[in-house]
Design brief:
Elements lengths: L1 E4 L9 H5 L4 E3 L5 E3 L9 H10 L5 E4 L2
Antiparallel strand pairs: 1-4, 2-3
This protein binds iron/sulfur cluster.
């Protein structure tokens, strides 16, 4: 399972970094940087929640 953020949709609200602080940090303009793409199965629900809460629907979950 992999975390992907579409930079063309993201508006830098930062909600994702609050929910997924282990995976995402924000740059100085508050846009997300994915620090860790591979998501452990135990964090799958949290990732799905972050994807649902993203106001721009910029977060995707890719199954591998
Ligand atoms: S919540 Fe969505 S729009 Fe906001 S910074 Fe994260 S990916 Fe971008």
């Amino acid at each position: 399972m992999r975390l992907v953020i579409d930079p063309t949709r993201c508006h830098g609200h930062g909600t994702c970094a609050q929910l997924l602080d282990e995976y995402i940090r924000l740059d100085k303009w508050h846009y997300p940087i994915v620090a860790k793409q591979k998501v452990s199965v135990s964090h799958a629900d949290l990732l799905r929640r972050a994807a649902q809460l993203c106001p721009e629907l910029a977060i995707s979950i890719v199954d591998e």
